[in-house]
Design brief:
The structure is a homotetramer.
Chain A lengths: L4 E6 L3 H13 L3 E7 L3 H10 L4 E3 L2 H5 L6 E4 L3 H13 L3 E4 L7 H14 L3 E3 L7 H11 L6 E9 L6 H6 L3 H4 L1 H12 L3 E9 L4 H5 L5 E8 L4 E7 L7 E8 L2 E5 L8 E4 L2 E4 L6 H4 L1 H16 L8 H20 L3 E2 H4 L1
Parallel strand pairs in A: 1-2, 1-4, 2-3, 4-5, 5-6, 7-10
Antiparallel strand pairs in A: 7-11, 8-9, 8-15, 9-10, 11-12, 13-14
Helix pairs in contact in A: 1-12, 4-5, 5-13, 6-9, 9-13
Amino acid sequence: MATPVRVGVIGAGRIGQVHAEHLAFRIPEADVRMVADINKAAAEACAERFHIPAATDNVQDILSNPDIEAVIICSSTDTHAQFIQEAAAADKHIFCEKPIDHDLGKIDRALAAVEKAGVKLQIGFNRRFDPNFAEVRRMIEAGKIGQPHILRITSRDPEPPPIEYVRVSGGIFLDMTIHDFDMARYLMGSEVTEIFVAGGVLVDPAIGEAGDIDTAVITLRFENNAIGTIDNSRKAVYGYDQRVEVFGSGGGVVVGNNRPHNAVYSDAEGVHAAKPLYFFMQRYTESFINEMRAFIAAVQNDMPTPVTGMDGRIPVVMGLAAWQSYRENRPVKLSEVE
Amino acid sequence: MATPVRVGVIGAGRIGQVHAEHLAFRIPEADVRMVADINKAAAEACAERFHIPAATDNVQDILSNPDIEAVIICSSTDTHAQFIQEAAAADKHIFCEKPIDHDLGKIDRALAAVEKAGVKLQIGFNRRFDPNFAEVRRMIEAGKIGQPHILRITSRDPEPPPIEYVRVSGGIFLDMTIHDFDMARYLMGSEVTEIFVAGGVLVDPAIGEAGDIDTAVITLRFENNAIGTIDNSRKAVYGYDQRVEVFGSGGGVVVGNNRPHNAVYSDAEGVHAAKPLYFFMQRYTESFINEMRAFIAAVQNDMPTPVTGMDGRIPVVMGLAAWQSYRENRPVKLSEVE
Amino acid sequence: MATPVRVGVIGAGRIGQVHAEHLAFRIPEADVRMVADINKAAAEACAERFHIPAATDNVQDILSNPDIEAVIICSSTDTHAQFIQEAAAADKHIFCEKPIDHDLGKIDRALAAVEKAGVKLQIGFNRRFDPNFAEVRRMIEAGKIGQPHILRITSRDPEPPPIEYVRVSGGIFLDMTIHDFDMARYLMGSEVTEIFVAGGVLVDPAIGEAGDIDTAVITLRFENNAIGTIDNSRKAVYGYDQRVEVFGSGGGVVVGNNRPHNAVYSDAEGVHAAKPLYFFMQRYTESFINEMRAFIAAVQNDMPTPVTGMDGRIPVVMGLAAWQSYRENRPVKLSEVE
Amino acid sequence: MATPVRVGVIGAGRIGQVHAEHLAFRIPEADVRMVADINKAAAEACAERFHIPAATDNVQDILSNPDIEAVIICSSTDTHAQFIQEAAAADKHIFCEKPIDHDLGKIDRALAAVEKAGVKLQIGFNRRFDPNFAEVRRMIEAGKIGQPHILRITSRDPEPPPIEYVRVSGGIFLDMTIHDFDMARYLMGSEVTEIFVAGGVLVDPAIGEAGDIDTAVITLRFENNAIGTIDNSRKAVYGYDQRVEVFGSGGGVVVGNNRPHNAVYSDAEGVHAAKPLYFFMQRYTESFINEMRAFIAAVQNDMPTPVTGMDGRIPVVMGLAAWQSYRENRPVKLSEVE
């Protein structure tokens, strides 16, 4: 077995812990050397839990550590672009959670730094690594759908995030829909050229007061002439609703929700099955492992990463176009946003 | 049992035969007295087949027959408005196939004639009477969905109509989507205020040359703030695809396709089920019977019909708005079309 | 169109009315001339309802009527064998509800009379004509299952029959399982040689007091070495449960229940679908029409009927073997019963 | 966190590696100290792969190691009873793969040794820990099924084991059905009193020549009067088929197969889904982790194990009764086998 890739994890919050655990226990090809968090206790707890030999509250301890080859950036969004630049300057390969930033200028500077340093960069669009969606992509690539005509994505959360998060999240399109924008590009293998949004505040007026919306239906036009639609809600009472459909000249494929068990119960009232898995931590566990495995493999084998910096940038452009469309109630071309 | 309603059928084409058969054999409360078709042989064949005592090539034979209480208008679309006016003038109750017309002025004159005569009018939006969709409506009315937020309709035909039909059909929105527009209003119990269309010619260039499109994703805004999306294709290789979903604050409901049988076969290649029922004649049989039964019951019991003249008019307005949106690539308010 | 087959219906109870309606309204190739019932009012009500020109309380009026070509025997089971003999003697083709009788001697005399008269006889095993089960049979015949190895039938009623019926029905195996025995032979295309029963009274002690059981698991051995299992219950709280599975060297096929609609509702409690159609009158409507159509076609075209007298006799043998197995708690060969 | 349980793994074959990996990487509460295999290279490879500090070809190295609290017996079946006795004598807690042995005398001696030593023993009936089946058990315990009446288990392998294994496996009932026997007891919460088998060699004559059968339908009678049926095949061309159904006075519950993804593809031929997960290593991964977690927790918290020695013994009695029933073609009481 090749030498494991030596990794530092930046950020020991929820998603940082997920990646740390997977790197530590599920991916023998990785060796987590250090975890950093501005909250030192959080870094230490994470280190202890996942048998990581060092914890710090100073990111520089990771960036300046010559032993570390790659960093996993899981800190808050506003730090992503800066840490990417610093990590690139320190010649570390980089996995960074989405989004890179909400500001295209910052993104471009970060990507330029990566380009200049010649390090690898992978953005955390984990859903591409979900077995269901990956199968859809495989079918499309295998020609089973023929020419794609229509894409449908349903993406609904079980409950809205806290209002304080809503205020800084960049709003639904940059926080939540951004995953669906990536999924759209990934599945169709074609770029979106124009976006139209119909949205509103139907779930909770407080979301509107925070400057966001909570419900949206988004129309996408693709370069290959296909048409897509995404529907989002911040609150589905039955849990996380993550479905995708691609329809084309040769057939169609539909992906439904995953459930905790498949027991189907019949009684005098009807036939009953389990709700979908509750939220992304349950639903996308396997994809989180797979994306990390793919990043480690790319570093280890000096291969391109499967989700590039441009893959991280374009959904932000789409999110900005979506906001403009929502505000102006008209279709907006992505080229208008640049 | 009350005296059966004496009925004349106008038009012995495909849908005329369907209604004639149901009235003759499935609905004891109806008594078909005469069938008319400009092709007399067609009228006679229909009469013989369904034990109808009289056939004619002259609609006036029906309209002037004092014995006939109600007419079923199944002739070509361009004759609907005129026959409605004549039937109203002759004091007949009227069932008319959709659409009433493509011209709002003609529709308004026809509806005015109905109003003046005080006869009943029911428009042939049969899908409302499908057990699946009716169940969705019942759930919404029962409050199981809570406040509706998102409506999704998928409506795809197994193959495009003949090009000669495409040329006179009024185009996809007035011919095909019109059913989905009606379904949207019926399910949501709220009017659409604005429509946005993204469409194209992806199935067959000949459809584009005939002035129509064959693929569309349509966004609807409702008065109650809900948002809807319809996707249409003229050709699904796997057959007639007729699905609906309503999502709201209290839950969601999804309706899938009906199949000729439910046998599921597993072999070394996978797990295989039957395609959906091929087209509307197979898929909506039950709804055709139910709508006719509802019309006959409305006449017999002097009750309002369940699909009114306004229910026939509004989807035409929606179709015209959809065309305008498509041409101008912008959301169009229904109020702009009037 | 060929001249319709002139039919007399014997018995205007529940199933008699079903067949009368189908022959009158759904099968143009049939012409119901007369209906007989010992309860004359029932015969007359049936005649009026389905536009049958004559009603009688005397079966002889049908049997002696030279205008009538075929009879549909829907009277009580104890009259079947006698009416078959009389109808054969009167040179009428015969459709007879199952079972022919519970006594093999009587069955044999009836079949001998049919044989001698050279008339057609079809027994009312309607489930063969259900689209789901017919598809399973087609798959087996087409070789998609390969060599059949295992057959599974689940057959559960929504509620037990009245105790007075239980007392005269011949018991669960001759009343209820008899349909499953026929299904087993029909699907497998092979005869059963041995039967083992494990059964009991789990639903209602009154059934046991009436000399019957209400729950059974039955093992079948087939001549082709396949093995089958049937499970029966007189009471499934969720409704009529009618499933079948055939497994073989080339694959497997499973048939599930039919439902009144396919709407699937998700709420905070789970995902909910409709119960199966309530009972045989709802579930097997289409099969009742199809079996009658097949009988009429056999008469009209002078073809063999699809369910012969022997097809009526063998499931009775199986039912008797099942009772013997239950009483003696051992596998019983069909050859022991003769 | 409490001190991890120090574990030795005996046997580094297929299932030994599975348990070693889970203990090493998935269960922080366990600390694997040593792995033994008569093939030393296998032990060493396993140790290296899962970061286990010691490997040996001598089981005594584990048994005599005072540092080790618990052993995981994954060696060949013929060694189980002996190793249980030795481990008990060495005061180790014991997890042992099923079956304990095919000989009841040996089993009893092993259980007596466990009893005398007062150590914990858990038998490897992993399927109890599958989320689907566990949910069925929960439903039954919660009273949702009411009084259980009928149990159905379908258990089919994707392909037969090698003939050399068939010769020593104890045959289908002790090797394969034994899992289903355990499932039957576990779900129903009631003991089986009598077994009837109909079986044969339908898959491969070589299996018959090796003294085994490959297809069986097994009837179970329970103390609580419920009736069960299991169907087994050594070869389902579509993969591992693992389904369960429990039906009772209050309702029914059905568990189907798990699939690698839920993408459903429709084309001109039909609607297609993925085959079930291929075999037990794929299908039951989660249950293997859960059973090991349960064992470690029982040791750590000094609680009873969830699958006891008697739970290991009774399915062997059932397997022996099944063989006797097959040979004598009659129902056999479990009390006859003792």
